[in-house]
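Box S2. Input/output pair 1.
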Amino acid sequence: MTAARQPWKAQQARYCVAIAAGLLLFAAVSPASGEQPALVVNNRTGLAISGFDPVAYFTDKTPQAGRPELELNSGGAVWRFRNEGNRAEFAAHADIYTPQFGGYDPVAIANGKSVPGHPLFWTVTADRLYLFYSDEARAAFLADPGRIIDRATRKWPDVSRTVPR
């Protein structure tokens, strides 16, 4: 190989290594099936949790409607926020603010069913947001959250395969 071609070959090798590393990283963080994780999303609007601000559950301790001009596309859904600070916080830590089990009711999941939660029936437990189908389901959860979370966590992989994406 000529001296002029050696730098080009070295550059090609670095380029190939960078592409391979990027593909491996993408595969590691993507769902195995190539689909988005199960998440309750309105089919007509694309909104997650009916347009409520997921960060407000933590900061305001109450559900707050997000504003259409403060939207963020993330995880296959459109999320709305009350202010730019909440949007930035969600963008930086979506794993914390996204409802557990994709917004499906953990009590139903613990029983092997997928039932979308409602943004007005909620709780933050162990720094995570949970949404429920009804106030009764929320009360059942609060009576023994550890047991419900454990059962729902075990059943979620099977249940999540049955929900539309």
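Box S3. Input/output pair 2.
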Amino acid sequence: MCFKVKKEINSIFLNYLLNTELYRNSIINRSYTSALTGIRSSDYYETKIPLPSLTEQQKIASILSSVDDEISKLELKKKSAESLKKGLMQKLLTGQIRVQV
């Protein structure tokens, strides 16, 4: 579906906005169900989205992007720690490493 936006909007902010639960629920509430679930384009176009000013959108998008980057870094760190744990557990279980109590 193609969007027509009446105001100027930051594309990164729009991406975050369209992926929120609030927006998703508003679209689900407008959808109809038969054999398949769908939404009429007219209902989709009537969805109102309150927008802050463009500078505020840019600030919000910047903050959310930096938070996403931090989350990605932490997820990589977590995967690395889990991998290290698995390796150490395997060495402990096979007796390659002994633990002194």
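Caption for Box S3: Strands lie at 32-33, 37-38. Helices lie at 11-18, 21-30, 41-45, 54-94.
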